[in-house]
Amino acid sequence: MSVDGWNTVLVLGGIRSGKSEFAESLVADAPVVRYIATAPEGDPEDTEWATRLATHRARRPGSWTTEETAGEPRRLADVLESAEPNETLLVDDLGGWVTVLLDPEYQPADDVATIAELAEAIRTCAARVVLVSPEVGLSLVPTTPLGRAFTDALGAANRAVADACDAVVLVVAGQPAWLKPAPTTAVAAAAAATVSASASPVSPAASQTGAFQAGTSLLDAEPTPEVQLPDVLTHTPPVAPNQEPGNPWAAPTMALPMVATGLVIQPGMELPMPDDYAGPQAVDRLATLDVPGAGLGVLDRVVGFAAATQGTSTPAAWGSVRVLLLNGDHAGGASAGTVAGESARRAAQARAGRGALARLAAESGASLQVVDTPASAPMETQPALTGEQVESALRYGWRLAEQAADAGVQLLVLGACGAGTEAAAAAVLAATAGAEPPAVLGRVITDSGEIDDAAWMVRCAAVRDALHRTRRSPRGAKDVLSELGGGDVAVATGVLLGATARRVPVLLDGPVGLAAGMVSRDLAGQARHWCLLADHGQHPAVRLAADVLGLTPLLDLRLDLGEGANALVALPLLRSVLALAAALPVHPSLAGDADADRADEPQTDPEPDDAEPDDAEPAYTGPDYTDPEFVEPEPAGPGPTRTGADEQPASGWRAG
Question: b/e per residue, 475-503, with b = 16+ CB within 10 A?
Answer without folding.
Answer: ebbbbbbbbbbbbbbbbbbbbbbbbbbbb
